[in-house]
Amino acid sequence: MASTDRVGSSRSPDWRNRFLIGYFSVSAVAVFGLWARYFRNGTAAASLFQPAQETGTLLGRTIGALLAGLVLLIAVVGLRTGRNRAQSFGLLGAGMVGYAALNTLGETLAEGSAESALLVLILATSLAAGGLSKDQPLLVVLSGLMACSAVWLAGRTALTAGGSLAAAVTVTSWPGPHYLAEAAMALGTVAGLFARARGRCWGGRLALIGLGTYCYSTLNAMDWAYLNDRTVLPVLAVTLGAAVAGAFHLITKEEASHANPHRFAGAGGAPDGAGRHPLCRQG
Question: In terms of Cα–Cα distance, which of 72, 149, 73 is closest to 105?
Answer without folding.
Answer: 149
